[in-house]
Amino acid sequence: MRARLGQNITVPDMASVYLHYWIKWWVNTWGNHVGIVIGATTTDASSGTWLEAHSGNGSGSSSGWVERWVDISAWKGQTVKLEVVDQDDTDDDPTYCSYGDHGGWVRADDFYISSAGSAVSPEPTWGTWGGEEKGQASPFACKKADNICSCGSPSCPTDGFCEECCGGCCCSGSCHTCPCPVVGVCNPHNVWGWAWSENIGWISFSCEDTMPVGVEGPDYGVDIDRATGLFSGYAWSENIGWIRFNPPPDPTYSNNYPAIPYYSARVSTTTGEVSGWARACAGTANPDICATGTNPAAGGWDGWIKLRGPNYYGVWIDTSVSPAEFRNWAWSDMVVGWLRFAGPVINANGLAASWAMDEGNEGYIYDSSGNNSTGTISGAAWTTSGKYGSALSFDGNDYVNLGSPASLAVANTTIEAWIKPSSVSGYYLIYGLKNLPKLYINSSGKLELYNAAAANTVLTPNVWTHVVVTSDGTNVRYYVNGVPDGTVAHAAWSTTPSQVKIGQDPAGTTQNFLGLIDEVRIYSRALTQEEITAAYNGYKVMTSFSINQPPQAAISCDGSGCPGSQCNANWVTYQAIANPPCIYTIKNDSTDPDGQADIIKSEWYLKKQGDPDTAYALKLNCGGVCNYTLQSDVEAGDYVVKLYVEDTKVASASTTHSLTVKGEASAGFVCSLDNINWQVCENLSNKVSQGELVYFKDDLSLDEHSVASEGAAITSRIWARNGINFDSANNSTSSVNLADTTNTIRLTITDSAVRSDYQEHIISTTLPLPEWKEISPF
């Protein structure tokens, strides 16, 4: 388990328990002690137990980082603190930076607890795991005390830690957000790809480790917070340096620079629209000046990049594709100009040369890969009709001389270009080295590498075509417009530098290209199918960030539990008051592009037809998706039913439908002993003798009576006693002898709309009195 300095930790109760850490120190005072204390309640040695202490007159120093593993079994089950301690408090004066008679410092990092009593971890990257330093005589502390360490200052020491240099870390001589990046490793980011500036070229949103082996490079890259849509991180331009997203507010301009997130780059989690600003600004911290000014000192490249604009150029993220793609344009001032968020997104690792051919009016083409393989144009003319921006036009005796750079003599390679040949019936070189490989169009109009079999597709003249050939030391693979076009076996190429040309055989003056060539790139590796497809589709800024899509409300009805109802264009049902009740369900068919689970609220409302929307009454609400079944409290009438749904990002939708609720069929009857005087049947209980005849009637003139459903007529009456029918002739009046002690009388009615109901009354009887007989006394 990790153990943080200055925080309470509970030592686990294990058979063996060791505290591991790394430490380095220097002490210049006999009486001073520096080291590690466990069980401390303060930041010095006044409490707790020394695990390690050092002192000495200049000789008390380590030669570098030393790994420790100390048995701390004595503290099993206890909650303790760990502290890095400089015992000589006189050295804590921040203005004191002498290596004289006083002083000492200790630095410790990478604390954790385990059962291993041996060395198990590599030397730490300082500050990664809660490193801490004590003692004002350290070179780092002196830098701080002399106010040399300031954010972005090149004077920041080469070895530092969190919270001492502008709230960050000192990494390779400059301040950086903690922790310092790991050498040769980029942290993952959820935005990647390239944006194109008409003035400064490509801007990378990916984290690309371009530092030499063994040299720390900053971890840059851009992220989008999935909950808020806020951007963070840095993009990189070879020409203007860092572009910072999500800049903090500057109090200097408090009147026109509101707090975050007004000027922060962010994306709407519902619409995909990107708003706010990115920061590439050193000359001014005022976005208003930067956005409108024309003075480079107060704007220009060292200023703000506006991401939001009218529909025809404002940046937005298209989530109809996966991964999502950025669209349209952003605007900055003067030097940067327009930024195009489109066009090839591939891993730039192994990029040996990249000629965008957008110089437009110069005699050279420049390599933006960093290898500086500049090409000298011989005869080829510039045209603005390139695939992306400008291109070079070759008329049969032109070429570009690239010299003999070692960076282009690679064993494995990828050759990529956009070409628009005016002829495909001959031998026309696209790009090649004298010592091979050479890529050209052969006499059959197909791609071919010299000394390798040709591709399959005959190219079309006067059409822009994306052509790629890869070689991995075993096979050569051709691609046309992102689609594989043939594979042949072939060994690796020579790594001896030789003459390189575009548009003409590098071994002579033949095979001159006819047509346009643009966007030539060379790699020292074989690109993958996915990368080639992405290159063909155009370099794009892309993201794995998922923009919320609003729900889509939809309803339907199910009247299968209510015979006679309708669920077509007209929704018609009956009151839910019969026996059995009408079951009429309005179904929630809502969907969400992000998945139905993204809908977290459904609300059902009902109002009378013609009433204002304020009259909607909530009938049912639930978390998620639920249906609504009409209840007995809904009276007959014309209604509007409304469904409202809401998702996890509070995006919502609603829909309505008209609904007619008809009056339901209702059975009812009364009883009589003489077929004249009618009363509630239960009033006869225990007043009727067993076997006596009783009359029943459901006439409308009586208090309890039967009615058909709205618009219908009663077509059937069935009278039953204790479950046995005694009259099925649709008679409104009937009678039966009550033969049992308890008699349940049921009337079931059915109407012409196939609606039915029943009513029951229970009548108890008494045994008849014995028959009186006169007995003669004689």
What does this protein look like?
The structure is a single chain. By secondary structure, the protein is mostly beta strands. The chain folds into five domains: 9-146, no CATH class; 191-340, no CATH class; 351-526, Jelly Rolls (Sandwich); 555-662, Immunoglobulins (Immunoglobulin-like, Sandwich); 670-766, Sandwich (Immunoglobulin-like), CATH 2.60.40. 3% of the residues lie in helices and 38% in strands. The protein contains three helices and 59 strands. The longest helix is centred in the last third of the chain and has 9 residues, at 529-537. This is LamG-like jellyroll fold domain-containing protein. InterPro entries: ConA-like_dom_sf, Ig-like_fold, LamG-like. Pfam families: Laminin_G_3.
Write out key terms for the chains shown.
mainly beta, 5 domains, nine-stranded antiparallel β-sheet, 38% strand
**β-strand amount:** 35-45%
In the CATH hierarchy, what is the class of the largest domain?
Mainly Beta
Number of domains: 5
- Report the principal-axis shape: elongated
Q: Biggest β-sheet: count, sense, barrel? A: 9 strands, antiparallel
The amount of helix comes to under 10%
CATH architecture label name of the largest domain = Sandwich
Indicate the low-confidence ranges by residue numbers.
89-102, 126-131, 135-173, 176-184, 210-216, 248-262, 281-302, 343-347
Mean pLDDT: 77
Oligomer description? single chain
The total count of strands amounts to 59
Rg, Cα atoms, Å: 43 Å
Structural class: mainly beta
CATH topology of the largest domain: Jelly Rolls
Annotation field: number of helices: 3
Keywords: Disulfide bond, Signal
InterPro entries: ConA-like_dom_sf, Ig-like_fold, LamG-like
Protein name: LamG-like jellyroll fold domain-containing protein
Pfam families: Laminin_G_3 (PF13385)
